[in-house]
Amino acid sequence: xxRFILFFIAAIFSSSVLAEWTQIGxxxxxxxxxxxxxxxxxxxxxxxxxKSGDYVVMWTLRNYESPVKVNGKKHFSSKTLEEYNxxxxxxxxxxxxxxxxxxxxxAVVYSETYHGDMQPIIPNSIAHASWKIACxx
Length: 137
What we know:
The chain has 2 helices and 10 strands. By secondary structure, the chain is of the alpha+beta class. The strands form 2 sheets. Strands 1, 4, 5, 6, 7, 8, 9 and 10 form an 8-stranded antiparallel sheet that branches. β7 and β8 form a beta hairpin.
């Protein structure tokens, strides 16, 4: 378990510095079906795609023009590790990190790891755009 945690910590910081982020959305109103309305720019790391059968894991980065405040914690960017089911058009969040500055820089304000179920991808959403890139569609 400790080895798994160390892998994620190393991946977070190394991929932020070395990642080639490709922008896939700019002020897109729907982020997984929710109207954010806060000037969101969304990026994916195509170089970090890890595929195993019908499943793909890929990092997504979101920058916010103005700070997002949740439970008293402000952040200007979030970095999410997501797993996509290419066959069934589903995804789930594996972990996410909120950063004090854009481009996943500055202090980590909050982080969480999930063990949830796959969710259907809403057509024409950012999740759909990410799924298409991750799965090569």
